[in-house]
Amino acid sequence: MQQNTELKINQLLVGNEKKTALLTLHGYIDSNTSIALKDKLLSLGGEIHRFVLDFSGIEYVSSAGWGVILARIKENREKGGDIVFAKMMKNVYSIYELLELNKVIKYFADAEEGLRYFGSLPSPSVVEVQKVKATEEKIEEPPKRFTIEGAICSLVNKNPLLNSSQIKKILQGPPYAFKHLNIFKVYFTLRRMGLHTREKRLYFAWQEAKKQIKG
Amino acid sequence: MMKIKVDRLAIFDNIYIIMDKIEFTLHGSFYPHNEIRNFVAEVCKRLGYNSKTVYEIKTATDEAFTNVVQHAHKHKEGKIKIKLVSDPKKITISVKDWGEPFKATSLKSRSPHDLVHTKKEGGLGVLLMARLMDRIRYVRRKTHNELIMVKYRKEKTNATKH
Questions:
Q1: Which residue among A27, A135, A136, B143 sits deepest, i.e. has the most Cβ atoms within 10 Å of its Cβ?
Q2: Which chain B residues are within 8 Å of A31, Cβ to Cβ?
Q3: In chain B, domain spans
């Protein structure tokens, strides 16, 4: 059988205990490529029941594509989950409305909103509070000896919205003074720590904030 | 192997008639859905239809083609002929096959709610074609099936003159 290379599915597990799957789709979903999507939903379906399907890279969906998703919804809802859509191209969205799928499947403007619907991302108000706290607090003087990982944890905890370039600049300057730090070192360290995307840093900061509230 | 034959392109003042026959001999389970969609879309674009209408026509053609592959040919090798005929008022798409006859009732049209409750995947194609095209007719002749779909032009033509 022809390989379904015309549909790419990028998978990211997020949220509490990684129970929400963000599937970012690229290409088209027709009677040939829908098999790959069906296989992905089935393979994750044992553990995961909350799916956000990001359609931003999808140029075409046939009835086979819609059917594969619709057939999986009831099962996920019965287990307390759901399948939601995010960010469709105009033509794809017009078919979603034409088939009245908007009465059956929720749609969000982007993947972050879909993840928030499942409670898998901190709400904007939590992020805003953290940003305000980060600007108000003075930079603490770090202990004289510390590791890059420790410094990154501290920075991400204070401001999870910093990207790797911004983290590098802060670590190179006073008081951290990692003068020979380059962007690759920062990126691979973040990756090793599981903090290489904004979502993961937000989740990390949220977990730390929860611990502080409970503690 | 897919063969595309362009028989004739004739222009009469503002009437554009395109006689394109796309003949496919299907091998095994290889069905060039994407190539057919892109070809139909390209023809409709050159005929001056807007992008929304082009998308609707290419979707309906893909659905018709998929039905032939699944129901008339049962995913086996077979011959399918797709013809597009255009005039100033409309485009007519005919999908002809020499496969098994099928009853129109056997192609059930299901709503999205039905699919959610029954957990079945098929049935949206017929609904989609009916909503996208202005007219649909299925004809069973002695040796072949033919599905004829019509989409009326709603916008002024911006067709490319050859």
A1: A27
A2: 31, 33, 66, 69-70
A3: 2-152
Bond preceding residue A175 cis, omega within 30 of 0: yes
**Interchain CB distance below 8 Å, A2 and B128:** no
ipTM passes above 0.85: no
The DSSP bridge pattern shows strands A50-61 and A82-86 to be: parallel
Over the range A76-115, which residues count as b (16 or more CB within 10 Å of their CB) and which as e?
Answer: beeeebbbbbbbbeebbbbbbeebebeebbebbeebbbbb
**CA-CA-CA-CA dihedral for A97, A59, A69, A103, to nearest 10:** -10
For the domain made up of A6-136, the CATH class stated in words is alpha beta
**Fold category of B2-152 in CATH:** Heat Shock Protein 90 (3.30.565)
**Secondary structure E strands in A43-180:** 50-61, 82-86, 107-108
- Beta strands (DSSP E) in chain A are 7-14, 20-29, 50-61, 82-86, 107-108
Q: What is the pTM of this model?
A: 0.66
Mean pLDDT of B128-143: 89
Using CA atoms, how far apart are residues B151 and B153, in angstroms rounded to an integer? 6
- Which of B33, B67, B74, B76 to mutate to test binding with chain A, by most A CBs within 10 Å of its CB? B33
The alpha carbon of residue B88 is apart from the nearest alpha carbon of chain A, in Å, by 24
Give the model confidence (pLDDT) of B2-52 as tens digits: 344 443 333 322 333 444 444 444 444 456 788 788 888 888 887 888 999
Reply yes or no on whether the pLDDT at A191 is more than 80: yes
Say which of B69, B112, B132 has its CB closest to residue A104.
B112
The residue to which tokens 């362009």 are assigned: B6
pLDDT digits (tens, 9 = 90+) for B91-123: 888 888 878 776 655 555 667 777 777 777 677
pLDDT exceeds cutoff 80 at A83: yes
Q: Which residue of B has its CA nearest to A35?
A: B121
Domain ranges of chain A: 6-136, 148-214
Inter-chain CB proximity A31 and B33 less than 8 Å: yes
For residue A23, give the amino acid letter: L
Angle in degrees, 0-180, between the axes of helices A63-78 and A34-44, rounded to the nearest 10: 10
